[in-house]
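Hello,

Following up on my earlier ticket. Below are the two sequence lines again, exactly as submitted.
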Amino acid sequence: MLRYMLRRTLIMVPVTLFVSMIVFIIIQLPPGDFVSGYAAKMATSGEIMDEQAMALLRESYGLDKPWYVQYFTWIIGILTEGDFGYSLSYNRPVSDIIGQYMGITIIVSLVSMVFTYVVAIPIGILSAVKQYSFFDYLATGFGFLGMATPNFLLAIILMFISFQWWGDPMLGLFSAEFTDAPWTAAKWMDLFKHMIIPVIVIGTSNTCELIRVMRGQMLDEMTKPHILTARAKGLPEWRILLKYSARAAINPIVSTIGWSLTTIFTGSTITAIVLNLPTQGPVMHKALLSQDMYLAGSWLLLMAVFTLLGTLISDILLAWLDPRIRMTRKGT
Amino acid sequence: MVTQAKALMQRFVQRRAKKGAGQDYATSHWKLMYRELKRHKLARISLYILGFFYLVALLGGFIAPQGLESYSGEYMNSAPTKLRMIDANGKFHIQPFVYGLKSERDPETLRKRFVEDPEQLFPVKLFVHGSSYSFLGLFKTDIHLFGVDEPGRIFLFGTDSMGRDMFSRVVLGSQVSLTLPLVGVSISFLLGLLIGGISGYAGGRVDAVIQRFIDIVRSFPTLPLWMALAAAIPPRVGVVEMFFYITIIMAFIEWTGLARVVRSKFISLRSEDYVTAAKIAGVSDLRIIFAHLVPGFISYLVVAATLAIPGMIIGETAMSFLGLGIRSPATSWGVLMQEAQQIENVALYPWKLIPLLFVIVTVLAFNFLGDGLRDAADPYSHGNGAKSAKRKGKRKWVSLKSKKKQLEA
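Thanks for your patience. The regenerated structure is below:
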């Protein structure tokens, strides 16, 4: 087990480096750079930047060097000093901006994830146990609808409902009076009230998928012979359900935690833009549009690394849950 | 490549059909699949709905009363026009008609709104002259399916903030929203077949490298990656180029899923006896792949491709919605949703959510169709009677199970 964990963790290193390279290439793709975009913006407000000034600006930002030099300065900075570069549009170090938004982003993502599992697993189990009942059809119907609705549109609908019923579309994460207030109990309450819509929106598509998986798995597991044995021995039904079927059925859900993270990041990005949340989504959107490459690149890199971490964790969890996987993997 | 494979397969099937063993054994795989698919009620309905949508998209210019460029400045944010058969005096008209619109101010909000004017009555006519368009890209014409005489107006889904008819825009937008995923899936289909095939057939080190690469591509959160790639599209490109850029960006991620299906099928088929027999008989690798392996799993690939379409539709909608996708003068369902970004717009003019309905219906239909296809993909395994029915019920829900197995492989 330990060896497996170690090996799996070591593979992460080259993969992460490779990911960072892809990120950098993608960020470099847009024609022109920050300076030319900046010059164009200045031109619209009447100020003309000449070639010399642009070259000077490029030199000071290090944009005149070839891309691989830029890449290595960037990556070495991250590795040695935790320096993610300098955000050109915010005029602040990227790590500063990341620090500012990271906390709230992680809170929103984690709560969405917990919401997903807390809702999906019991519903999945229940609709499998009561197969073809009214509840089952209801859960299935909701599941399909939830998967088909793009979550940013769900955000609009929920905002609309909230606006109609309470007269407040619940934009952002804090009411105006709490934005700069210290962290009191009232502020936390306010935060949680505002988090209801984002969490539902971000979690729904994933929840619906998990309900389907859980239901299918449970149906498979409940007909296995060892369940029959347990029942014949007179074990209480709830115990059979939770200890034998559910435990085996949860397997694929654990193995896809890494992917859940991807969907949650994806979902939270666009939802945050629509709902105007103070998380990474809008920051990233703006950074991409203004070609603020270090900021955009760092976000993309961080999200990819988080996803990789998620996959790592789910792989390890899976090996721990299901010895069969550990054994077969050792051979390869 | 795919057509080649299909042709080969058809030849194979025909040859087999000539021999005419049992009745069912002579039926082609696709025919069996179709037969099975027709039994799946939801999939059948979905097929009809999608067929209808694509037909409407194909005849878009003819069905939409207005063109992409037309707008009427005086009818901004007008509510959907009601089609009527009975007028204010209780008289029945055999030909449906609409009332004229007159604007007035809402006494409370002072906002401009439109009310029907029962004085003016415009019968809805078929085959009226309107803005000119090119019919199926063949010839220019200005005949539209329906419309009313000037100065009457017909807005079945209301108008947007520029006074453009939403119904026309939904119809014309479907031309982009419905074809883009198809083109995207075709690209990922080819990529997946090629790369997954190489990976599965070669095995060993090549396989390991390709699999790691796929892992890495999949580890990116899709939307931020799409956003980053979309930001790389030059700002002033034509409509058609933009369409292809977006398609390629979508396909860039989707192909990995298909490649995995191809690879796992290759691996499981590679060790079949008939492949070994072909190898011993001295058949070339290429021929083995296309004549013996590909026909063996092409139906599974079709299923995977169908199930990849909804994700693409949502992706395109999301990107266009954020202003990173399709740009004017072209339109798509995502572009149409842009106005719904402001909550006031939705609250005051709820008909602006109509395009959303079409997105949801299309995505659902593709999902159901994919589910039906998955059940039908393996028609030989279905016996008759209760056993197969029970299996079918179960199989619907194990979509992710195969994903998980690939993950473990």
